[in-house]
Amino acid sequence: MGNDRLLNFAIKYGFLILLAGMVVYFGLAAPGFASPRSAVFVLQSVAITGILALGVTCTLVVGGFDLSIGAVATSALMLSAYAMVVLEMSAGVAIGLCLLMGAAVGLVNGLLIVKFRVPDLLATLGMMFLLIGLQRIPTQGNSIATGMALPDGSTAEGVFSSTFLWLGRHRLDLVIDNLVPLPVVIFLLIALGIWLFLGFTRQGRLMYAIGSNERAAGLVGTPVNRYKIAAYMISGVMASIGGMLLAARLGRGDIASGTNLLLDSVAAALIGFAVLGAARPNAFGTATGALFVGILLQGLTMMNAPYYTQDFVKGVVLVAALVFTFYLSSRRGTGRS
């Protein structure tokens, strides 16, 4: 009985203990890591990744997976820049176009998966390549900035709206004087909303039921296809929000800026399986996973670890977290049987 209690404790709180231990270690080993400014920088660095990861979480809940989120985010970044700098549209129109684009991509992904029976990984991988190519065509692969030369020989005269830039650069006077970036607040609000939706609404419980046993959920009258399509549309919209916030922070349409968004957001969503022993996708775990990745990268950077080792370390942490979760969970199940 004592071993069972210890095992249950390790499954439920082991990851959080690891997270706390990592914070303590970096706080002692890296000067300045424990400062408020460093904490705000960590939150800022994980806000966009976390928003994308929450979208991935919704597809994982229904038993799917979305590989196109990084491409959707970069497409939203480029689309918002193109709309304001090249087409000289307002911030409101640019934001609306990006949200519609994200929802449309999610709709197409969902239809490919539920109507045409294309496996989710292949459907979203194909969409990823399609978007990567499509976003480069209008500017022939160049980033977008005011004054740039366009393919037709003209010059881009538009500028980023100050309202749009406010979304990515404004800092709120919360807890730390004028240091909390608005994207962090947006991330926390989205995380809270998705946590409440998945955990406390009938629709969220039905999405979990679909992910657990799609056939059984369908037999009791659940509109499985509709919920799966909705999950991919949510993912697309979340990715477009992340892309817009990145564009607002950079103030230009940098085509290479979203390179690591897919890997980091997927890592955060999967690490979330280990938080509180959930062993399933969940919004709280995803947000914690994003924070874990941000703290890890910030600590490694402040300790002057070579940049080329960071992906390796992230991979090790991800594999360890998943093995820890599912191996110990299987041991618990074996012990009880």
UniProtKB/TrEMBL annotation:
InterPro entries, alphabetically? ABC_transp_permease
The yes or no answer to whether the keyword Cell membrane is present is: yes
Cite a GO CC annotation.
Answer: plasma membrane
The membrane topology term of the UniProt record is: Multi-pass membrane protein
Q: Which GO terms describe its molecular function?
A: transmembrane transporter activity
Q: What is its main location?
A: membrane
Compartments, record wording? Cell membrane
Q: Which Pfam families match?
A: BPD_transp_2 (PF02653)
| Record key words, sorted | Cell inner membrane, Cell membrane, Membrane, Transmembrane, Transmembrane helix, Transport
Segments traversing the membrane:
12-34, 40-62, 69-87, 93-114, 121-138, 179-198, 229-248, 260-277, 283-300, 312-329
Protein name (record) = ABC transporter permease
Q: Which organism is it from?
A: Palleronia sediminis
List the lineage, top down: Bacteria, Pseudomonadati, Pseudomonadota, Alphaproteobacteria, Rhodobacterales
